Amino acid sequence: xxxxxxxxxxxxYLKNRAAHFAHPGKPERLWVTIAxxxxxxxxxxxxxxxTARVRAWQERWPEIAAAAPKxxxxxxxxxxxxxxxxxxxxxxxxAIAEIVRxxxxxxxxxxxxxxxxxxxxxxxxxxxxxxxxxxHGLLRTREGRLVFGFIHGNWALDNSRPDGRWCxxxxxxxxxxxxxxYADFTxxxxxxxxxxxxxxxxxxxxxxxxLPRGFDKGIPATRGGGTKDxxxxxPGPLGVRYRDRLVPRMETGELAVYDPPTPYRVKRWLDLxxxxxxxxxxxxxxxxxxxxxxxxxxxxxxxxxxxxxMFRWIDEAARExxxxxxxxxxxxxxxxxxxxxxxxxxxxxxxx
Length: 352
What we know:
Blueprint: H1 6-22, E1 29-37, H2 47-67, E2 79-84, H3 90-100, E3 105-111, H4 118-136, E4 140-142, E5 145-152, H5 172-179, E6 181-184, E7 203-205, E8 218-220, E9 232-233, E10 239-241, E11 249-251, E12 254-255, H6 263-272, E13 275-276, E14 279-286, H7 291-298, E15 299-300, E16 303-304, H8 307-320, E17 324-327, H9 330-342
Parallel strand pairs: 1-2, 1-14, 1-17, 2-3, 3-5, 5-6, 12-14
Antiparallel strand pairs: 4-5, 7-8, 7-9, 10-11, 13-14, 15-16
Helix pairs in contact: 2-3, 4-5, 6-8
């Protein structure tokens, strides 16, 4: 990955690294989640192909999760499938729901759209969330309302592409908040020009809702600082890594056939991941429905996958740094952030 759009991320990255080295702190807990841009119907796949893609995860993921080191609460890793609204097919979603019922997976919301209207966006998200919840037992309620985590397709959150494509919704961040979005997990989006100017920091957006890219400004989440107005952004690690290749490359926390996890990448993730007080929040992402990525992550009959050793490497790296591991879903990570910012003790188990 070339160092593209450096004007967006480099100033914030250098500022973040300077603060990290000036005030290193002593983290105590590591929260880990995987947010998959899960598109089983991608490429206009038939329902037969889509269900075969899900079947690979049904067969292999629970075994990988069961074999992974348990966290401090005895939990297995939990994988979150962010399923696209425009790909809704009942039988495909129900197959994913079967994985969720095993306790090692969750489902949240993803969407690809273009030249969208505000009313159309609200209708699509509302109806999709209702289907997920009422027809498949997915999503959850919080304080009396249905809530969801969100990833924007094609990275174009809040109409952020310079050419205006792949979104179109004015004030999309506020629309998401009004619809029940508990947090956005889209970032980082490099090498796309949609990348936020805030990196390696969990924060609430404060940008002008009348303009695109409202996520370029925000209020950082702090321990005991309370929740703020705006949409909560939970990004993954973003930075430069120096090994595994002849030249440096960008690190965005992606898990893919062309960029598998390694022990060095794991350590780099822990150095770059957002922190709040004594808590490190590591969000990784993938496009795991594709056969090439699924084969690399889960393994095939003739070749082991990369997810299984990754969990061991994360456990080993955490032990070296005296960090308690908490494997969580995307919602579980949000709940942990919410507790930290409200000053609630972290001793109790949080939702997966």
